[in-house]
Amino acid sequence: MGRSPCCEKMGLKRGPWTAEEDRILVAHVERHGHSNWRALPKQAGLLRCGKSCRLRWINYLRPDIKRGNFSREEEDAIIQLHQMLGNRWSTIAARLPGRTDNEIKNVWHTHLKKRLEPKPASQQAPKRKPTKKQQPQPEPVTALEGPTGAVPVSPERSLSTTTSTTTSTADYSAASSLENAGDSFTSEEDYYQIDDSFWSETLAMTTTVDSFESGVQQAEGSFGKSAAPPSSTNDDMDFWLKLFMQASDMQNLPQII
DNA sequence: AAGTGTATCAACCGCATGACT
DNA sequence: AAGTCATGCGGTTGATACACT
């Protein structure tokens, strides 16, 4: 079936967003939400396509975006999750409060992938200092009140791969008013606490997300070919728990549970 | 100080998918 | 059932900042 372009290109602006555009977008989302990205730019008076507005909001203007460098714990989490999930950046992002799929994808390609590649010890040290962009940045233009730190992973957000992420601004505001429990992993304990919800959410996801092939494939061997996944995740949650424990063991991963 | 190479990251593009008609 | 629309996702690109010579 044919698909129309996401937006009519004529007359629409592209490229980097200006502070004024950011301000307009934030103000509009704050006031009206973003139930319809396609109509939003017209309503807000922006010469952008809805897709561009959505991306800008998701990746930069959202109030729960965490800016600045990734912590070592976050990087390790990305590596672990990538081993289990592959390039499912949005799913990985759902596990890292305040981080976007785009950001994680960039970090993976620019840092983490290289880190995993074996190198002579002499090349381990980074050649460059962190760039300005890597340093904590000034907060993006936002009309939203309250802390801009990350919020704990909410069910809506965790399941963003399978459900609409149309979260109202009110939701974000409410979420932002919570303590910044997920803002930073102040200790390993805190970090792993965040992952306490991993299994329940992961198990829930398996009803719609095709069952983490990599983990399944690796675990299949140890479970034997006859150990087919349950037809319904609800009827055998233990299967998936064992599956991931097995997969973690096989990959010599630190236990995340 | 200037030129060049490279790393980084914001933004774009095209496709997949689900909802709706 | 088929077509259209809207959104989400992952891959890719281009501008820019920075390191190195």
Automatic annotation (TrEMBL):
Molecular function terms from GO: DNA-binding transcription factor activity; transcription cis-regulatory region binding
Superkingdom field: Eukaryota
Compositionally biased spans, kind Low complexity: 158-175
Keyword terms of this UniProt record: DNA-binding, Nucleus, Repeat, Transcription, Transcription regulation
A Pfam family the protein falls into: Myb_DNA-binding
Keyword Transcription: yes
GO process terms (BP): regulation of lignin biosynthetic process
InterPro entries in alphabetical order: Homeodomain-like_sf, Myb_dom, Myb_TF_plants, SANT/Myb
Principal subcellular localization: nucleus
Chain positions covered by the region annotation Disordered: 111-175
Domain Myb-like intervals: 9-61, 62-112
Keyword match Transcription regulation: yes
SUPFAM superfamilies found in the cross-reference section: Homeodomain-like (SSF46689)
Protein name: Myb-related protein Myb4
Alphabetical list of CDD domains matching this protein: SANT
